[in-house]
Design goal:
Helix content is 75%, strand content 6%. With 648 residues, the protein is mostly helical. It catalyses: ATP + protein L-histidine = ADP + protein N-phospho-L-histidine.
Length: 648
């Protein structure tokens, strides 16, 4: 009997062993079959990266890899294939497909929480909105997401590179002070980088930023830094061309001509390229400005190259300068170039170029009201767009700061909660008794402040009405009376004179309206105040603002925001009129529940015995009216320091 059991056990063990072998064999076959397409898709991906292959072949390789990858679970290889597919489409100038596959990449990377490819995808989406469809607020949004995702994975270098794009976009939309902030932030990331290309690009953007702000000294310094630091010859040519353009703007035509002529002789510069056309165009313009008359052939050669390369923005610049060239000698020809420029500007959605064309058309055809109406409409539209872009970017910066603050706040709250639980019971009775007292006191204080605020508001309204009335009388009434008297004496006065006079009156009206507009509060207050302070920045006076955008302005009551805005504007106006300051610093700090604002300038200061004017007296009343304190620290020849402390 025992022999039978032994036989059965032996048979069972043999069957079990055979079964295990079969299972392992089948599993191995399945595994091997799965690895075959995976390794094949990797090989195809590598072939698509090989630049020695034709673009058509590389596109076929990546299409095959993509087809195989879609049959398999999502992993980093599948994401790499999708990413490369988007790149191939942009090489084929298929922008819509580039957009589609990067949106697909963003969704797929989100599904498996791959931060690297999520950052790559949203950067490419930002690039699409920036370079191809010209929607700046969307470009800002995706660029900012990409920057944050790269920061999360610790890639500060890539974050800095993305900020270069953000700064360039801000410069393009006249947000010069915002661009300067972004460029300073870039240097924090890129100074430690061995990649000199992006550091040089940052210096180039800083130079462009200072050029836009008419700070030629710093612009030259940064262009030369960009040229010195880069080890890429093609970039050096671009930066030298930018430097030459700056010299043209300064009127230093001979220096610009010599530099541009050297660039055209560079063996690395391909004749017939868009860069060659840009340099040739700038050289022609510099020579024409310097008095040379035989520049038309080179102007037209540059335009021809730009047409062949489908460089639409370059064509716009060529048409603009050709119109300037023909304006005096052949206005009809100039108008034809300007009409072409306007059509092309509309096609590439560049309203700023259209306004440049309209400005010259108004000079050539002063009686054409349609040109002036279109010009005013576009200028207003551009102002609205620039304000929208500034607000959008300011909000994103604010959201970044708030997200970091929330994380720190949660950490603090967690620690404080543990400590508070031990003493909560003992303090409960005290809190209840104090609550009743504080409630009554708070309500009383609220109504007292509200009544005081209403009185101050009425005074402010009365003061504003007086100012508007005075400006209407001193500026508009006199202009209108002068125009009426002129028409009365000369009823047959020509139309351009009347139009110019009416335009002057219109500008005065817009100025009065702008000076007395409603002040934005809440989250938008930082942008509002920064624009106001930035208006006082020029080549003679540098204005530095610190801590403005990091403060939680939505927690400050509207009437206090208005008081701060009016007071700081009064200080800036007073500085401009009397102090002769070359440097103004305004620092915002939060200390507990108090907002400290410190205004400092290096002007001539004020005598201690000097009496305040109406403006400064109103400022003192305004700050005291919102339960604040104000302190003046000034001596003759030692500048001015003013400290404001306001509870919020």
């Amino acid at each position: 009997m025992s022999d039978i059991y032994k036989m059965l056990n032996r048979t069972t063990i043999q069957k079990l062993f055979v079964s295990i072998i079969i299972v392992l064999f089948v599993f191995g076959c399945i595994k091997n079959n799965a690895s075959i397409p995976k390794s094949r898709s990797y090989q195809l991906l590598e072939l698509s990266k090989n630049k020695s292959n034709k673009l058509k072949d590389r596109a076929a390789y990546i299409d095959s890899a993509f087809y195989i990858s879609q049959q398999m679970p999502i992993d980093s290889l599948a994401l790499a294939i999708i990413s490369k597919k988007g790149v191939i489409h942009i090489e084929k100038q298929q922008q819509d497909s580039f957009f589609y596959y990067n949106r697909f990449l963003a969704r797929q990377s989100q599904e498996i929480n791959n931060k690297y490819y999520k950052a790559t995808a949203v950067f490419n989406l930002g690039y699409y909105y920036d370079k191809f469809v010209n929607i700046p607020d969307s470009a800002f949004y995706y660029y900012n997401q990409a920057k944050n995702n790269f920061l999360i994975i610790g890639d500060t270098i890539r974050s800095g590179e993305i900020l270069v794009n953000i700064a360039a976009l801000q410069n393009l939309h006249n947000n010069f002070f915002g661009a300067k902030e972004s460029l300073v932030e870039i240097l924090q990331y890129l100074n430690k980088s061995s990649n000199k290309k992006y550091l040089a690009s940052t210096y180039n953007e800083l130079a462009t930023n200072n050029l836009k702000l008419l700070n030629y000294t710093d612009a030259i310094k940064y262009y030369k830094k960009a040229i010195a630091i880069t080890d890429t010859k093609s970039d050096i040519i671009s930066y030298q061309n930018n430097l030459a353009f700056l010299y043209i703007e300064q009127g230093k035509y001979n220096i610009a001509i010599n530099l541009l002529q050297e660039l055209l002789l560079d063996s690395l510069l391909q004749k017939g390229s868009t860069r060659y056309a840009r340099i040739l165009h700038n050289l022609s313009y510099a020579q024409w400005c310097n008095g040379k008359k035989e520049v038309l052939p080179t102007f037209l050669e540059a335009l021809s190259i730009r047409k062949s390369k489908k460089d639409k923005l370059g064509q716009v610049n060529s048409y603009n300068y050709l119109a300037e060239y023909y304006a005096a000698q052949n206005p009809k020809k100039a108008s034809q170039y300007l009409d072409t420029m306007i059509q092309l500007a509309k096609k590439i959605k560049n309203p700023r170029a259209e306004t440049d064309a309209l400005q010259l058309l108004m000079k050539l055809h002063p009686k054409r009201i349609a040109f002036k109406d279109r010009y005013i409409f576009l200028k207003d539209s551009l102002y609205q767009l620039e304000l929208k872009v500034k607000t959008k970017f300011a909000k994103m910066r604010y959201d970044d700061q708030e997200e970091k603050a929330q994380i720190l706040q949660l950490q603090r709250e967690s620690a404080e909660e543990k400590a508070a639980l031990a003493t909560q019971k003992a303090q409960k009775i005290l809190y209840l008794s104090l609550s009743g007292f504080l409630l009554i006191s708070g309500v009383s204080l609220y109504y007292a402040l509200r009544q005081h605020y209403k009185k101050e508001k009425l005074k402010e309204i009365y003061k504003t009405e007086k100012q508007i009335s005075k400006r209407l009388h001193d500026e508009l009434s006199n202009d209108i009376y002068g125009l009426m008297a002129s028409i009365e004496q000369n009823p047959n006065a020509n139309s351009p004179y009347l139009l110019d006079s009416l335009e002057k009156i219109y500008k005065h009206t817009r100025t009065v309206s702008h000076d007395h507009r409603e002040i934005a509060t809440g989250k938008a207050f930082a942008v509002e105040l920064k624009d106001t302070l930035g208006a006082f920045y020029n080549t003679e006076t540098t204005v530095v603002v610190k801590g403005l955008e990091t403060f939680e302005w939505e927690k400050v009551p509207d009437y206090k925001c208005v008081a701060i805005h009016r007071s700081l504007k009064e200080f800036m106006v007073n500085m401009k009129k009397h102090s002769e300051a070359s440097l103004v610093a305004i620092d915002f700090k939060k200390e507990g529940k108090l907002l400290h604002i410190t205004y400092t300038d290096n002007g001539i200061g004020m005598d201690a015995a000097q009496k305040f004017g109406v403006g400064l007296n109103n400022t003192v009343s305004r700050i005291v009216g919102v339960n604040g304190k104000i302190k003046f620290d000034s001596e003759n020849g030692h500048g001015t320091k003013i400290i404001i402390i306001i509870p919020y």
